[in-house]
User: Which sequence fits this backbone?
């Protein structure tokens, strides 16, 4: 069974750093892109970026370039999303998601359960 | 960047109603269009991929159509468990997926 299991909720202060994780199991972790999606309270889904754990090729949405860092450790089948200096506006639910590629399609077929990040002084 | 719009932003419907949600892309995306359902407090769930292919395990009352810039998600007979928010997503821009703003379906 394919699973993406994310780390638990975090409460941080502005200016602090944070790294959240997403552990994949039940499939070849190095063969599928893993994306990160932000959902601010009461708002829609925003695509942040994506990483290919096989070679760590990483792409960022322009809105998130320079704001976060996406990485992966294929030895432990885990992807990461990190911030060096959190802002209150980073308060959101963050989902990791597996991209599946078909012959003429590309979709997110599995999602993590989400990690709630709250940034407040 | 490819921008996605959805209409309506919300709708109220009754059990048994036929519901149609529209998604439009800012440029042609061929059939690289997916639909997701999200319920409160839960992760999104894939319903339709490649514009019209039903994801395994999804009820057949859900269907998708369209190509190019205009797409539609139809629920043929709304069930109580279908009250949720629906998002379209383009995957034509290979590594920079974009979601639509969402359509909330609630009970009339």
Assistant:
């Amino acid at each position: 069974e394919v699973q993406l299991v994310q780390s638990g909720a975090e409460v941080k202060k502005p200016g602090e750093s944070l790294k959240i994780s997403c552990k994949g199991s039940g499939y070849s972790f190095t063969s599928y892109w893993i994306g990160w999606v932000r959902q601010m309270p009461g708002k829609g889904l925003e695509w942040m970026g994506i990483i290919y754990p096989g070679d760590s090729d990483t792409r960022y949405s322009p809105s998130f370039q320079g704001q976060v860092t996406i990485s992966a450790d294929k030895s432990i089948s885990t992807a990461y999303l990190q911030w060096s200096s959190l802002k209150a506006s980073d308060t959101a639910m963050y989902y990791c998601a597996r991209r599946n590629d078909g012959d003429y399609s590309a979709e997110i077929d599995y999602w993590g359960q989400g990690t709630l990040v709250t940034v407040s002084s | 960047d490819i921008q996605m719009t959805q209409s309506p932003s919300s709708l109220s419907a009754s059990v048994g109603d036929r519901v149609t949600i529209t998604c439009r892309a800012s440029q042609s995306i061929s059939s690289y269009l997916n639909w997701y359902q999200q319920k409160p407090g839960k992760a999104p769930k894939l319903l339709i991929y490649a514009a019209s292919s039903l994801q395994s395990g999804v009820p057949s009352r859900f269907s998708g159509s369209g190509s190019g810039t205009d797409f539609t998600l139809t629920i043929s007979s709304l069930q109580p468990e279908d009250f949720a928010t629906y998002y379209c997503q383009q995957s034509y821009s290979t590594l920079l997926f974009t979601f639509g703003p969402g359509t909330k379906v609630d009970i009339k």
Summary: Chain A touches chain B at residues 33, 35, 37, 44-47, 50, 59, 61-62, 95, 99, 102, 104-109, 111-114 (CB under 8 Å). Residues 28 and 86 of chain A are 32 Å apart (CA to CA). The mean pLDDT of chain A is 97.
